[in-house]
Every structure is written in structure tokens, then in C-alpha cells.
């Protein structure tokens, strides 16, 4: 590659080399749009500059000067001329836009002589001396690092000397004096003469822009926004002929979108300022005028602008974000890039552009970042009101949507107040299955511990309730019922607002905006449905969740966590009774009652998903999760002076069942090995539900799935229970039932021996939450709230493996599980039902790994459908 390309000769597809701005300028030049002549110094030069110990490579300046000659020819102006000087701007521009993070220098080429030439050229000495003054200030600041205040001080005293308050009232005499003083400031700072030749100025300015790539602002911005070297590697420098939007009332400058960025309507949207420089619009120093007004004020320029918008959209096949300047009636384009739009605008423009035949359906689907669709399905905070509220803390965005309510730290209170119609935000260090009733009555949930696949996160997502977890800076005090962060203490009953899409907690009630599933959104979903190859199922544990998921386009349930059903208030008591049972007989009695309840639950869900498969997973959590924490219970007993035998028994049982490492403890299939009657009850409930629905001619398709299986022996142990129940029910109803029996693959050994499991299992489903936990040995409950942020900060991990499948580790293991399983059963159905099922990158991986379907919580179904379509394109 050459170090420097004139706009007309660059290959604008090379964004990495030319940066976004350079690529846009050269593309517009090729389209014969009115771009001021100029050239781009490549990002490669930037990298060489650093390799060279912060020195420009030798071939750069000669190439730059050659291009300055070309600019002279095109503009008819002369570099360093006392009559008709060529002035340039020197602008940064990386492959990814980093607004305001790097430096720009304007009016370069002015010195004691050319400023006179510029005065002749513009017939405006005041304007040219003011430009010169501005140049020295910017150059001093950017190139030499002079503190701006020093210049301001001189400017202020000049104004008071002349007796004016406005910069624009300074006369030539004052400006000349200011220029002298400004130069002195620079010279005192650098101990060298202020560079007067345009050549020297240009060399120094180019280096300064390269330096700003590694400036603190830019480095932090890249870190915060995940801009790694493969996305943008160094900045390019664009040297552009100066055009002036501040040459009087026939001059202007503005920024527009070719379509409305908020609602997607086909209209030019944006602002401009008369007699101003581009920086004034971007910096928001003066309030811009609606671009509609330009039609009246400068009709010819408006026409040129709208023609340019149309041409650029046609060319880029994307709405554009454009900067323009009008210099004494002459229209110029200074930048174009793909417009960043709201999710709603992306959807509308996608549908519109297909109708306009600008793009095809595939392109219309791929241009929408699937993740952004989430915003269309949940209440969001009213952007304009957020700034009126103080931010209390920030945690992990665990379940999207915005909600407000009074802060309540006690589970029981949350239930009571919620049921009494109060809006409640439940704030806890962490939550347990026994807290679930409070989830129903709360508007949102906030925990200081836990990660994306922690209990609170999964339950909230399943219910579509906003939730923030792992909010480590929030110190919760259960004694006083308060929480503290950011120097603010929130007491019980005080109003707070949470944004589960971002992870932010605010003081007070932030107004929210209703979501809308528009017709355009439905159109996009139907196109995606027709394009995708992966099946999409839902993680749903209630008929309502199943209905919602179906509305959104889910075709089946990939995971129904049956333990969730035990959490409903009418059965948690029974379930505890079952755990407390002292004899098999006693336990069976309670199980009978639970069986009836489960059967009716299954009927509800199977009906809601009629015609589609519903994967019912048998009990997974360890039993002690349904009992109170022994220490908390002991405290409560002491406080309330509770000496009853009954409570003491609960305490004893809770202590007996407690485990040091419950995630690897007595859970899933292991519980059923100890208490086979529990699974027997659940399996019977599934068969009974199927029998009843068959009678009613409902096309129910349940299948039974076993969690935590690590060996064929375990699976077969349960299979024989299943076989017994099946036989019994078939005899009872004199009918055959086809209910598939399958296993989760969430234990490492299960993946490694999937060929053995495939002998018995009729389907597999990867539990990628537990599998990730096992593969990394990272606790899914703690890692994200504790040390994973540091891994990300130190670039040891790009994203949390609990959010996006770790392709090289977990993905590798999945591939082994899939290959071995399908070696035994060619058409084996293999899904995934961990939280990754709703993550676009994980969906892409699943598509490539030939997974049969992904299963995600109802609110993520639309995202999953679009992501699956994108993976297939
Ligand atoms: C999993 O482990 O990925 C899974 C789906 O099961 P759970 O999250 O209920 O443990
Ligand atoms: Mg699991």
C-alpha cells in the first residue's frame, strides 16, 4: 500500500486502511459529489509511526507534498501563497467512528504572510485574522499541549481592552495583538519559534493526530466500547481543503440523517447553523435550526443536499449520516457514514428499503443487530427524563426492561405489598427458589451478587421482569433495611428505578415508554422465520409464558423447568412437607397431592403449545434450596423466640441437607437416585396429562428430559422408572403413548460419552449454563459478579462465557457430543436450552454446529429468530 491516497484514487472498500472518514470522502469523490479536494494518510502509516518510535516514516512527507500539489491544481489556490492561499483541515478518522476522541486542526496553512493573502481572497481582513487566531489556539493546544485557559485569558483581556463582550466584535487591530500574544504563549511553552511554514505546520499536525490515537481519551473509549485491533487499528489522517461555513449569512454548516434516526421515516432529519463552523454544530454550542428551514433559507443548497442524500443512499444502500458545509452559497459534503439508528428505525427502514427495491430481504435482515430488537419488546426508560435522576449504581443487565417501585429488602414484605397493589423493587443480596413468589409481586429485581445465569437472572428473564444482578457496589444492609452506593443510602419504601437492559439503578421514579410490536417488526420476523434453519423453542414454565413465546414465534418448548412450578405459593408448602417427610409412606402421600398439581400445570402448558414439542425437565435443584438458609432460620428463631418442634425439625433437616458446593452436589438425577419416587411422580404426571389431553383430542407432544446426567447407568436407572410408568399408564388407558425420553448434556462426562447415552436417549439438549460452569470451573452464580469483569478489563476474555458460548472450549465439547451422538442415531434431535439460546453469537455457533434448535426465554424469541436467520444467510 502507498502511504497516501488522494480521495479520487483510494479504494474506498478498504476501511481498515483509510478509516471511515477517508473511505467515505473517497467514495463521495468517485460519485462526483461536491467534496473539497484532499487526501488520506493511511492507518498503516499510523502504525509505522509508533513502530518508528513516534516518528513519521521518511516516505510520508514527500508523498504528502505531491498531493498538496494536486490540491493546488484542483482548487486553483497556492500553498503558502500571499495572494490566494490554500488552507487545509487535518482530521483524524479510524475504521470505527470515535466521536470527539481524537484531534482535528483547522485553518492550517496560515502564517504572517498568508493571512494577508487570505484577507484578499475573502475580502474580509477581520475574518482572516480571526481564523489565524483560532488556528494558533488549536495548533498550540493539539500539537504542543498548551492549556486552553492561557489563550482564553488573553482573549478576555483583549475584549475588555477594546470594550466588547462578543468575540465577533473584536477588530483587526485587537486580533493582530492576540495573535502575537498567542504565539508568545506557544513559544514560552515549547522554547522554540512558532512554526511558520505550512510544510512544517502540516508535518507537526499529522504527527499530533497520530499521537491522539494513543491519547488517554481515545484509549479509554476503545476499551469501554470493545474496539479491538481487528476492528480498528490506528487512525488515518485526512487532509482536506478548508471550506468555510462561517463566511457570512450565505454560509452554513450542518449534520443530517438521510432518514429519521428515531422512527425511520423517509425524511431528511437534522440541524444546521448559518454562519458557523462544523465544530459548532457537533459541540452543540449554538442550537441548530431544523433542516426543513434550509428549504426556505437556501433553496438551491437544500436541493443539492437532498439530491446528495438520495444518491448516497442508493449507493451505500444504507441510511447515511452526513456532514455538509455551504460556503458563500456553494454546497460541499464533508463526511458520510452509515447512520446509527434506534431499533425501531432499523426495523422500519429495513422493510421500507425492501419495498423501494433498494435492498433485498437478506440484506434487510442482516443489517439489524439482533440484540437491539430487545428494546422493542420491553418498557424502556424515557431517555429525555433519565438525566433528571441520580444514578445510584450499575450492575449486570440480567433481564431487560425498565421498572420503578419502592425499595423492599424483605421477601415476605415484597409479597404483601405487591399483592396490596404497591409497586415494589425487590432488593436482595441474592435470591433462592423459595423467594420466587416475591418475583411475581415485584416490578423488578435487583441483587448485589450473582451473574447472568444466576437464579434471580433466570427466573426474571423467564417472567419477563426487569432484573439487575451482580451490583457489587451496592451494599445491602438487611438489619436496617437500607442499601448504599455512590455515597447515597436508600431506605425501605423509597422509590428507585432499574433499567434491566443496561444495568443501571436510579433514585426516584424514571418515567418509562411502552414497547410496540409494529407491523414492520412482524414483517421482519416473518421474513426471518422463512430464512432461518435452526428451530426456535422457548424456555417456559407457565402457560402464560408458553402463550407469549408462541405469539413471538416459538415452535415448541425446549425447557420447562418443573421446579419452578413447586415455587408457586400453593405448592411450596407441600413440597417442603415432602422434603420433611420422615417415611416413604408419608412422602408418597404428599407426592400424590403434588402429582395432581403438576398434572394440571402440564395440561396448561401442553395446551398452550398444542402441536409443538414440549420438553419437560424433571426436578433439578438440590432439595435444600427449598428450605430456609439454616443460619438465617436460626437467627429468626432466636429473634422470635420460636422454640417449636416443627421449626426445629426444619432447621435440622436444612442443616442435614446443606452442602458446601451445591452446584456440584445432590441435585438433578442424583436426587432421583436417592428419592426415585420424586421422578416417578413427575413422570406419572406427564403421562396422565397426555392421557387426559388425548381424550380431549388435544395434540399434546410432551417429552421428558433428565438433568445432570453423567453416565449411561444413571440415565438407565431413570429409564426403567419411566418404562414402568409407561407400562402402567398404557394398561390403565389401554392406549399407547409416545413420549420421548431424553437427557441434558450439561456434565462434561455426558458430552464425552454421548455415544453411550445415545443408546437410551431419544434426544439431547445442551445445558450450556452448567456446561460452561463445568468447563471453566467458574461458578455460574458468582463469577460474573466477582472476577470476570477483571478478565474482560485485562482482555483475558472478550465476553463472559455465561453470555456467549465459548466456542473453543465449551463449543468444542458440544461438537464432540453432537458427533458421537449422531454416530449412533443419525437424526438425533439435539438442542440447547442454556441462557446462550438467546444470544446472537451463540446462535451463530449453534447453526454452524448443526444443532437442531435453540431454546430461549419468551422475550428473546424474536432476537433468536432474527439471529438464526442471519446465521443462515
Ligand atoms: C443449563 O444448565 O444450561 C440449564 C439449562 O439448566 P439450569 O440453568 O436450569 O441449570
Ligand atoms: Mg443445568
Plain-language structure description:
- With 873 residues, the chain is of the alpha/beta class.
- It has 4 domains: 4-244, 2-Layer Sandwich (Dna Ligase, domain 1), CATH 3.30.1490; 245-341, D-amino Acid Aminotransferase, Chain A, domain 1 (2-Layer Sandwich), CATH 3.30.470.20; 378-513, 3-Layer(bba) Sandwich (Glucose Oxidase, domain 1); 532-622 and 676-872, Alpha-Beta Barrel (TIM Barrel).
- 47% of the residues lie in helices and 17% in strands.
- The chain has 36 helices and 31 strands.
- The strands form 6 sheets. It has an 8-stranded mixed beta sheet.
- Strand 27 (701-706), helix 28 (712-733) and strand 28 (740-745) form a beta-alpha-beta unit.
- Helix 5 runs parallel beside helix 7 (172-190).
- It is elongated.
- 50% of the residues are buried.
- The mean pLDDT is 93.
- Phosphoenolpyruvate is lined by residues 458, 559, 561, 620, 746, 767-770, 833-834.
Characteristic terms for this protein:
873 residues; alpha/beta; Dna Ligase, domain 1; D-amino Acid Aminotransferase, Chain A, domain 1; Glucose Oxidase, domain 1; 4 domains; 8-stranded parallel barrel; 36 helices; binds phosphoenolpyruvate; binds magnesium ion
Amino acid at each position: 500500500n502507498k502511504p497516501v491516497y488522494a480521495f479520487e484514487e483510494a479504494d474506498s472498500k478498504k476501511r481498515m486502511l483509510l478509516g471511515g472518514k477517508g473511505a467515505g470522502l473517497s467514495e463521495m469523490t468517485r460519485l462526483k459529489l461536491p467534496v473539497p479536494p484532499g487526501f488520506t494518510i493511511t492507518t498503516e502509516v499510523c502504525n509505522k509511526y509508533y513502530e518508528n518510535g513516534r516518528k513519521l516514516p521518511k516516505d510520508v512527507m514527500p508523498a504528502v507534498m505531491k498531493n498538496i500539489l494536486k490540491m493546488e491544481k484542483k482548487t486553483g489556490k497556492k500553498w503558502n501563497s500571499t495572494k490566494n492561499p490554500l488552507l487545509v483541515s487535518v482530521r483524524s478518522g479510524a475504521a470505527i467512528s470515535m466521536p470527539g476522541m481524537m484531534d482535528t486542526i483547522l485553518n492550517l496553512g496560515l502564517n504572517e504572510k498568508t493571512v494577508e493573502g487570505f484577507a484578499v481572497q475573502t475580502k474580509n481582513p477581520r475574518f482572516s485574522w480571526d481564523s489565524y487566531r483560532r488556528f494558533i489556539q488549536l495548533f498550540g493546544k493539539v500539537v504542543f499541549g498548551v492549556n486552553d485557559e492561557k489563550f482564553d485569558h488573553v482573549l478576555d483581556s483583549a475584549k475588555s481592552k477594546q470594550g466588547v463582550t462578543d468575540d465577533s466584535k473584536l477588530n483587526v487591530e485587537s486580533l493582530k495583538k492576540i495573535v502575537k500574544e498567542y504565539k508568545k504563549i506557544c513559544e514560552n511553552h515549547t522554547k522554540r519559534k512558532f512554526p511558520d511554514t505550512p510544510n512544517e505546520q502540516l508535518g507537526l499536525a499529522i504527527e499530533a493526530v497520530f499521537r491522539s490515537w494513543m491519547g488517554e481519551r481515545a484509549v479509554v473509549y476503545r476499551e469501554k466500547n470493545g474496539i479491538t485491533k481487528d476492528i480498528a487499528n490506528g487512525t488515518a489522517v485526512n487532509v482536506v481543503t478548508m471550506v468555510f461555513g462561517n463566511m457570512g449569512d450565505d454560509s452554513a454548516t450542518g449534520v443530517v440523517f438521510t432518514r429519521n434516526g428515531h422512527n425511520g421515516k423517509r425524511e431528511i432529519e437534522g440541524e444546521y447553523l448559518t454562519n458557523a463552523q462544523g465544530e459548532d454544530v457537533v459541540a452543540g454550542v449554538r442550537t441548530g435550526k431544523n433542516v426543513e428551514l434550509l428549504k426556505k433559507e437556501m433553496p438551491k443548497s437544500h436541493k443539492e443536499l437532498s439530491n446528495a442524500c438520495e444518491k448516497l443512499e442508493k449507493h451505500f444502500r444504507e441510511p447515511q449520516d452526513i456532514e455538509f458545509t455551504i460556503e458563500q452559497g456553494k454546497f460541499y459534503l464533508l463526511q458520510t457514514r452509515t447512520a446509527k439508528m434506534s431499533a425501531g428505525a432499523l426495523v422500519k427502514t429495513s422493510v421500507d428499503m425492501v419495498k423501494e427495491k433498494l435492498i433485498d430481504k437478506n440484506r434487510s435482515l442482516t443489517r439489524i443487530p439482533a440484540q437491539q430488537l430487545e428494546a422493542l419488546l420491553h418498557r424502556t426508560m424515557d431517555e429525555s427524563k433519565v438525566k433528571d435522576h441520580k444514578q445510584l449504581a450499575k450492575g449486570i443487565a440480567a433481564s431487560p426492561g425498565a421498572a420503578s417501585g419502592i425499595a423492599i429488602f424483605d421477601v415476605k414484605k415484597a409479597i404483601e405489598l405487591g399483592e396490596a397493589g404497591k409497586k415494589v423493587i425487590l432488593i436482595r443480596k441474592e435470591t433462592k427458589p423459595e423467594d420466587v413468589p416475591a418475583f411475581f409481586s415485584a416490578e423488578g429485581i435487583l441483587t448485589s451478587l450473582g451473574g447472568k445465569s444466576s437464579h434471580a437472572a433466570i427466573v426474571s428473564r423467564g417472567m419477563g421482569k426487569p432484573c439487575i444482578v451482580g451490583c457489587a457496589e451496592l451494599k445491602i444492609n438487611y438489619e436496617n433495611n437500607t442499601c448504599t452506593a455512590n455515597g447515597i443510602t436508600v431506605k425501605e419504601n423509597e422509590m428507585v428505578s432499574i433499567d434491566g437492559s443496561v444495568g443501571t439503578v436510579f433514585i426516584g421514579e424514571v418515567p418509562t415508554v411502552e414497547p410496540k410490536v409494529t407491523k414492520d417488526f412482524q414483517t421482519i420476523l416473518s421474513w426471518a422465520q422463512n430464512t432461518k434453519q435452526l428451530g426456535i423453542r422457548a424456555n417456559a414454565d407457565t402457560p402464560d409464558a408458553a402463550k407469549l413465546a408462541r405469539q413471538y414465534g416459538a415452535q415448541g418448548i425446549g425447557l420447562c423447568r418443573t421446579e419452578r412450578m413447586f415455587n408457586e405459593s400453593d405448592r411450596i408448602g407441600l413440597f417442603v412437607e415432602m422434603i420433611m417427610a420422615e417415611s416413604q409412606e408419608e412422602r408418597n402421600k404428599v407426592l400424590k397431592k403434588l402429582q395432581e398439581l403438576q398434572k394440571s400445570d402440564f395440561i396448561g402448558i401442553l395446551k398452550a403449545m398444542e402441536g409443538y414439542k414440549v420438553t419437560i425437565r424433571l426436578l433439578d435443584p438440590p432439595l435444600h434450596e427449598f428450605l430456609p438458609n439454616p443460619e438465617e432460620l436460626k437467627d429468626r428463631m432466636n429473634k422470635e423466640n420460636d422454640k417449636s418442634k416443627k421449626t426445629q425439625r426444619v432447621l435440622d433437616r436444612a442443616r442435614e441437607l446443606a452442602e458446601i458446593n451445591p452446584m456440584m452436589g445432590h441435585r438433578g438425577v442424583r436426587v432421583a437416585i436417592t428419592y426415585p419416587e420424586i421422578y416417578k411422580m413427575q413422570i406419572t404426571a406427564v403421562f396422565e396429562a397426555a392421557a387426559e389431553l388425548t381424550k380431549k383430542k388435544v395434540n399434546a407432544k410432551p417429552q421428558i428430559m433428565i438433568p445432570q446426567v453423567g453416565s449411561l447407568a444413571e440415565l438407565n436407572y431413570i429409564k426403567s422408572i419411566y418404562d414402568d410408568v409407561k407400562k402402567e399408564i398404557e394398561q390403565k388407558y389401554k392406549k399407547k403413548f409416545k413420549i420421548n425420553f431424553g437427557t441434558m448434556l450439561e456434565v462434561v462426562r455426558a458430552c464425552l460419552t454421548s455415544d453411550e447415552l445415545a443408546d437410551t436417549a431419544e434426544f439431547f439438549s445442551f445445558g450450556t449454563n452448567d456446561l460452561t460452569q463445568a468447563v471453566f470451573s467458574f461458578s455460574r452464580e458468582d463469577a460474573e459478579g466477582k472476577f470476570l469483569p477483571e478478565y474482560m478489563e485485562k482482555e483475558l476474555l472478550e465476553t463472559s462465557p455465561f453470555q456467549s458460548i465459548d466456542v473453543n472450549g465449551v463449543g468444542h465439547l458440544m461438537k464432540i457430543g453432537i458427533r458421537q451422538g449422531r454416530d449412533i442415531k443419525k437424526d438425533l434431535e439435539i438442542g440447547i436450552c442454556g441462557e446462550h439460546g438467546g444470544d446472537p453469537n451463540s446462535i451463530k455457533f449453534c447453526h454452524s454446529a448443526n444443532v437442531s434448535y435453540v431454546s430461549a426465554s419468551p422475550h428473546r424469541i424474536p432476537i433468536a429468530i432474527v439471529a438464526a436467520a442471519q446465521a443462515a444467510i
